[in-house]
Amino acid sequence: MGIRVGVPKLNLKVIGVGYPRTGTYSLKNTLQILGYKCYHFEDVFTTPGHAQIWTDYITKEAESGAAPPLSILLAGYDAVVDFPHALYYKELRALCPDAAVLLTKRDTELWATSMMHLLETGQQIRD
Known about the structure:
It is built from six helices and four strands; from the N terminus they run βαβαααβαβα. It is of the alpha/beta class. The longest helix is centred in the C-terminal third of the chain and has 14 residues, at about 110-120.
């Protein structure tokens, strides 16, 4: 396998594989305190161009089974948590086999209640 010109090398040290509403935002904050530059779902919308990259991927490539352009999306980051990246933990592990993998979990009923609240109101509750 050759080196692809123009595609940044991914250098993640931490891969968070927990679903949203399982403490991923707290994990992001903790990793940042420890000095990591951490990508979280909110970065999809606050990083210029990333929402469009995900939209293009979902509408044009996801059905083919191709992975999203993770090396482009996560260039410059050394940690990632939350969706949509948690869905691609196998691909991330293949790209960064030495990265630590952290799984955040939550009681199923509390998780469902929190997710429903978020989806129905658009308001986040931090509990």
